[in-house]
Amino acid sequence: MNLVYFTQDAYKSLKRDVETNKNKYYEDRQWLSEYFESNNIKDYIRNTEVTVNNILFEYSGDDTESNNNDDLQNTITLYGAFKGKLTPSEAADPCLWTALSHTQGDYRNYILTRWRRGDGTISLEQRFFATEARANLLYFNAISRLWWSGYLTFEESKAKTNPWELTRTLFSAQQVQKDLFDQPYSKNRTVVKGLLRALKRIQEETGNAATSAFRKCTNSYINHYGAVSILDVLAASEIEELAYEYMKSQVKVAT
Prior knowledge:
This protein is mostly helical.
């Protein structure tokens, strides 16, 4: 398929009217053309020459373990299809992810399945729309979060072995992803990889998921360290050692 973007007018209109249109998101019929025509928006989508393979999204259940495994597999699949096709700047455009979420049937169906709450509804503004806010792109929008998770964790140097090791660590718990992507440094691949390598070591050595230690490390320790030093000048290995030593002092060996 070709990647598409909403125009700014289309994006703003659709986002403004999300409450008015909310029931349409759960219908099987296509309604976007009718909506834009009724709002006199003729130029609502921009096609690009960038093509990506069609994606079959995984969905195996609503329990936490299934969600973690599915998110891992869907990140591998989507980022694998998109790899080399987008720059981080292009991937920060909310009009791209919002358009894909609304116009591509497989993407739309995935969102409706993966993010449906107990009452059958979905947080439409979070999951179908993207904004320029870092947390929204990295954690909330159902499609952009998969791309960014892959971009930040894929290790090219391990392409012939297992380049997705850190992606697996990221999705070892939903809390790990949330705690990491809540941080101001969360788009810095060097910092992200250093932190996840440290967490992977702790998990392997202790048999503990170490989510509490990781939260303390990302929320306070690394932020405090960054306030008195410059994280951007540190290598991933230096970040890893800092985080590892801190989490080692916080975590208990699983019994």
